[in-house]
Specification:
By secondary structure, the chain is α+β, with helices and mostly antiparallel strands. Helix content is 34%, strand content 27%. It has two domains: 2-129 and 307-327, 3-Layer(aba) Sandwich (Aminopeptidase); 135-304, Aminopeptidase (3-Layer(aba) Sandwich). The chain contains ten helices and 17 strands. A hairpin with a 5-residue loop joins strand 3 and strand 4 (71-75).
């Protein structure tokens, strides 16, 4: 098996075609995600392990540069690799990536795999971060609209009807400023840190397949809820959402999710990923608990992932950086 860094558009195109055919191929390891990260100024590398000229495993690596030439590497929702005898074929791939990371003064390599790699020879451990969800709900959009509604919890269907009675309408938009105003309100209410305005704009403008839907109440010019999502490989993905507390009685977020499902289905998607709930058995203070009840009302299949893992390569430098980010 040979591992190499993919270095030109022809190789990237072949990688993209391969990825869409893999059961564990996903948006976060895609060329589309690469384009978005590069628009944010991040360095992205694509690694492939090959046998007889064919890719058998791969990893998109996002690299953050920090002070004194140090870096942090991340493999989001990867590596991706074929199964053989129940085992992901990623050992040589990760060995190569770790060797390159060490040469790059990498302090730590983070991985959020879709399958357990605890059996790996590598000294990895849970990172304690919750950047990527450890569980989600995925709806089957190949069903009819009636069947999709029927598999929801009664409260989910009820709240969708309430929104319809309030006359909530949903429209596609490019107004990221209006969406950001909702995000700022939601972040203050729910006590989370909103991303900079530019990142939401870059998501819509530089991530192929991204879309923005805004919900309106009758007679209102400003939206009362919004959703940023993306299509990838016939999969619809809910990414960012926000809503107005003033109009909470309209149940606009429920109308918005339902119309997003219909929107994705109309665009050829076969599934809709609600992107993140607290994993089964998670403590009450888990950061994803707040949205779990809302998303559960839409039904779908529960999918779980291993927690994010980290391989620390420069322990002292990483501890110093963690302290700096915590106190300054």
């Amino acid at each position: 098996m040979a591992v190499r860094l993919l270095a030109n558009s022809k190789e990237w195109e072949a990688y993209g075609a391969w990825l869409t055919q893999q059961p564990d191929g996903n948006l976060w390891q895609s060329l589309e995600r690469k384009a978005y990260l590069e628009a944010l100024g991040k360095e992205v590398r694509l690694y492939a392990a090959e046998e007889e000229g064919a890719i058998v495993a791969s990893a998109l690596v996002a690299i953050d540069r920090t002070a004194f030439g140090f870096s942090v590497w991340e493999i989001p929702r990867g590596p991706v690799g074929r199964m053989e005898n129940g085992k992901l074929r990623i050992e040589e791939l990760l060995t190569h990536i770790i060797d390159d990371a060490k040469k790059d003064k990498c302090m730590a390599l983070f991985l959020s795999p879709q399958f357990s790699i605890f059996h790996s020879q590598f000294s990895i451990r849970p990172s304690g971060r919750h950047v990527h969800c450890e569980a989600t709900r995925i709806l089957d959009l190949t069903q009819s609209e009636e069947e999709i509604l029927a598999q929801m919890k009664p409260k989910g269907r009820y709240n969708i009807r309430i929104a319809e009675k309030h006359g909530v309408t949903v429209r596609q938009s490019e107004d990221t400023d209006a969406f950001y105003a909702l995000v700022k309100e939601t972040s203050r209410r729910d006590r989370f840190t909103a991303l900079p305005r530019e990142k939401y704009r870059a998501f819509l403008e530089h991530l192929p397949g991204a879309f923005l839907l805004l919900a309106y109440a009758p007679g209102e010019n400003d939206p009362i809820a919004g959703l940023l999502g993306v299509f990838w490989n016939k999969k619809g993905i809910y990414y960012y959402g926000a809503s107005s507390y003033t109009h909470r009685a309209t149940m606009a977020p429920y109308a918005l999710q339902w119309q997003t499902m219909r929107f994705c289905k109309a665009h050829g998607c076969v599934s809709y990923d609600l992107l993140g709930i607290a994993p089964p058995g998670a403590p009450a203070d888990h950061p994803w608990q707040g949205i779990t009840s809302f998303k559960e009302k839409f039904g779908g299949a529960l999918i779980s992932y291993p927690p994010e893992q980290v391989r620390t390569l420069r322990p002292v430098a990483k501890r110093l950086l963690d302290l700096k980010r915590r106190f300054f």
